[in-house]
Design goal:
41% of the residues lie in helices and 16% in strands. With 386 residues, it is α/β, with parallel strands linked by helices. It has 2 domains: 190 residues, Rossmann fold, CATH 3.40.50.2000; 167 residues, 3-Layer(aba) Sandwich (Rossmann fold). It has a 7-stranded parallel sheet with strand order 3-2-1-4-5-6-7, sandwiched between helices.
């Protein structure tokens, strides 16, 4: 098949949308496609040495007239310029606001030239931003006028349909993991940096926002160490980090908790863990849990949002009901002290991540969406979404 020239728009942050957009671009580039990545800074996982991936940083000019720099307009201007100069076939945006709006503006600017716009919904663009009265109408417009819309989970698709009154048209394409990058390490050199000997290692990775309930991780860990020696590694940064540190101090486990801040190479850190704790109030998918699974780390999470679509409870991970959240520490301790069960679930976690969420299979699904649009969508007529 002929190669495509694809524009990918994303945020550069450590969150799921930026990670998946970047990894998707890398996967598409490996298949011979030319990728043009748009962001206001280099994404955390971008390999700048791939000649098939071109980074276009969006610079926002600051004028006294503007109280807030107009990033969406700067993005649209840069996007329009590159679409014309590089003759892009389509644009795939991650996060509806403001990326889809900017892409739709470019579509109008360049009309009657055809420019299909694919929007991938990741979660907070629907659950937080999209439901804000200030943005709800424009979010609905963005989704309805995209040529194709994908959702990272069936849960998020259903929620989007309910919130915005949309009918059909969305395709569920799950997040994925590079199983060659995220894999178990039989002799983890990193593990020796965390443990005091033959003890277990627990890990948590997030942006430390309230929805992640990171403080509950510390509280669960305090219960664990009453049953078995263990170390907790907290990766990431955000508003609740100081609260986590204070809670660790209050519970007397501060010397057993390591706060590493934001890390770009978590694939080297995850294999050092035995279990991954994620007591989130909401997860549209749970990419961090999937990456842990690929490393052979057993996830223990809440049964929230799209997590049940990733984790098979009791087989490759444990789903905790919200009314049992106070018992998470005991549940984790039971897992860690049952060596046979822990090893069995670790192997199942790795197998499930590879078999169900391997990168190649998911990248193929996106590629099929692109080719279907380019083959079937009449010029100037978006495919109906809602």
């Amino acid at each position: 098949m002929s190669s495509l020239k694809i524009g990918v728009v994303c945020y550069p942050t450590f969150g799921g949308s930026g990670v998946i957009a970047t990894e998707l671009g890398k996967g598409l580039a490996e298949r011979g496609h030319e990728i043009h990545l748009f962001s206001y800074a280099p994404p955390a996982r971008l390999d700048l040495f791939d000649a098939r991936i071109h980074l276009h940083e969006v610079e926002v000019s600051s004028y006294p007239l503007f109280k807030y720099p107009p990033y969406d307009l700067a993005l649209a201007s840069r996007l329009a310029e590159v679409v014309e100069d590089a003759n892009l076939d389509l644009v795939h945006v991650h996060y509806a606001i403001p990326h889809t709006i900017a892409a739709l503006l470019v579509k109008d600017i360049l009309a009657p030239r055809s420019l299909p716009v694919v929007t991938t919904l990741h979660g907070t663009d629907i659950t937080v931003v999209g439901q804000d009265p200030s943005y709800k109408r424009v979010t609905r417009y963005a989704i309805r006028n995209s040529d194709a819309v994908t959702s990272v989970s069936a849960y998020l698709k259903k929620q989007t349909q309910e919130v915005f009154g949309l009918e059909n048209g969305m395709v569920v394409i799950p997040n994925f993991v590079d199983s060659q990058r995220f894999k178990p390490e039989t002799e983890s050199r990193i593990r020796s940096c965390f443990t005091r000997g033959p003890e277990k290692v627990l890990m948590h990775i997030s942006n430390f926002r309230a929805v992640k309930r990171a403080v509950l991780v510390v509280e669960a860990f305090a219960d664990v160490v009453r049953e078995t020696p263990a170390t907790l590694v907290m990766i990431g940064d955000g508003p609740d980090r100081s609260a986590c540190e204070a809670r660790a101090q209050a519970l007397g486990v501060k010397d057993r908790v390591r706060f590493l801040g934001a890390q770009t190479d978590v694939e080297h850190l995850l294999p050092a863990a035995d279990a991954f704790l994620l007591p989130s109030e909401y997860e549209s998918f749970g990419l961090a849990a999937l990456e842990a699974m690929a490393c052979g780390v057993v996830p223990v999470t809440t049964r929230a949002g799209g997590l049940p679509e990733v984790i098979r409870d009791g087989e490759d991970g444990i789903l905790v009901e919200d009314d049992e959240i106070a018992s998470m520490g005991r549940i984790v301790a039971d897992l860690l002290t049952d060596t046979e069960r822990l090893e069995r679930m670790s192997a199942a976690a790795r197998a499930g991540a590879v078999d169900r969420f391997g990168r190649d299979a998911v990248v193929s699904q996106y590629e099929s969406v692109y080719r279907s649009l380019l083959a079937d969508t009449p010029q100037g007529e978006p495919a109906p979404v809602g």
